[in-house]
Amino acid sequence: MDLELDEAQKLIIENVRRFIREEIRPLEADLDPDAYSLHPEDRERLVGMVKDMGLYQMDIPTEYGGPGVDTVTRTLVAEELSQHNAGLYAAAYGVFGSGPPGQLYGGSDYLKENYLLPGIRGEKHGFFGLSEPSGGSDPARAIQTRGVRDGDEWVINGSKLWNSGADTADYGIVYVRTDPEKGRQGITAFVVDTDTPGFRVERLVQVLRAHYTTELSFTDMRVPHDHILGEEGGGFALASGQLADNRIPYSSACIGVAVYANELAVDWAKQRVTFGEPLANRQAIQWMLVDNEIDIRTSRWIALDAAAKAQRGEPFRFESSMAKLICTEGAGRVVDRCMQIFGGLGMAKELPLERWYRELRIRRVGEGPSEVQRIVMARDILNVRSGS
Ligand SMILES: Cc1cc2nc3c(=O)[nH]c(=O)nc-3n(C[C@H](O)[C@H](O)[C@H](O)COP(=O)(O)OP(=O)(O)OC[C@H]3O[C@@H](n4cnc5c(N)ncnc54)[C@H](O)[C@@H]3O)c2cc1C
Hints:
By secondary structure, this protein is α+β, with helices and mostly antiparallel strands. It has 3 domains: 7-104, Butyryl-Coa Dehydrogenase, subunit A, domain 1 (Orthogonal Bundle), CATH 1.10.540.10; 126-229, Beta Barrel (Butyryl-CoA Dehydrogenase, subunit A, domain 2), CATH 2.40.110; 237-382, Up-down Bundle (Butyryl-CoA Dehydrogenase, subunit A, domain 3). The chain has helices at 7-28, 40-53, 71-81, 109-120, 139-142, 235-271, 283-311, 317-342, 344-347, 353-363, 370-382, and strands at 126-129, 146-150, 153-163, 171-177, 187-193, 199-205, 213-224, 228-229, 273-274, 277-278. It has a 4-stranded mixed sheet. A hairpin with a 7-residue loop joins strand 6 (199-205) and strand 7. Helix 3 packs antiparallel against helix 7 and helix 6 packs antiparallel against helix 7. Bound molecules: flavin-adenine dinucleotide. Residues 128-131, 135-137, 162-164, 207, 213, 362, 365-369, 371, 375, 387 line the site of flavin-adenine dinucleotide.
């Protein structure tokens, strides 16, 4: 893998790093340790700065008027963006913006006009509606939300669980069983406006991060046929593709948190004296720091391998699953070791470690649990449908 970055890539990464250190971290000194958002005036000011840097909505391709930053650079940028208190689930508090879901680029002209382009203009935001109370690891079998065609419309009944951001979204991509006979080929993706009659969203589910998730229900919800994204029956393939894409930045964000946690621990180990000597002189502590570095570097290479393959247009599902597994689990170990090095202070809300410790635990389940990532990889290695 040739990872010599060019000057333009280095400049982007350097600018984002400086921005997080000089603009985001100082603001957090005055925020609640579990804060998820900035004061509106700070947010507006920082969005303006990011736009001036030409780095707003980096994932939007140039043909749609965006910066079109390449996948490898965005992977390294994601590692920088998470290096602050809220960075894991609210990277840079969203001031770098993010484009609409990637699947919309392959949608019909109608869907592009009504959802993709408003998303690019920042006027509409979507949510991802896959998991259901019946299970999220194996959506091909678990999805029970049912769509029945009635003329030019579909009548949808069912429920979804764990949807992030559905209560503030304008629309969602909702995965529905449209043919109960066909298994994974019987699932169709619909673009559904959140103000559609029959759509109900509740903030029911509190989890161990500061932000909640939602529960959705659909009661005789009528959705026009032209709101199908992709092919009828092609929803599962779309969802799998979206998840494989997302797993790369999802992984890099974990590395960023590990990097920052490790920096804090290295500093502390040099300052903190016990039994007459700095912690840094103790082999037990040195080994923890070395193990941190090994977890960080291994994670980074695996995430970059996935990104480089995606960028070259090669299959990368195996690599993105491996990145998701290695980075989420590795970052969990790093933060855990750092907390140990800090002792009591590691448990305190004065430091971001306890927040990351909680939030990283979610990462081993969200976007597909570690076991599911192993199933995806095993299928490739053995060329069988294991886990079925
Ligand atoms: C904070 C948060 C945000 C989320 N946001 C969204 C969202 O925006 N949209 C969305 O659609 N979903 C979202 N999810 C749902 C998430 O994707 C699911 O929780 C996840 O896919 C697991 O599904 P499940 O919880 O139903 O667990 P289950 O499918 O019931 O599995 C339970 C556990 O069993 C194990 N397991 C499952 N299958 C196997 C197997 N074959 N072999 C061995 N072990 C196995 C795994 O450890 C798994 O964690 C979110 C979840 C959380 C916690």
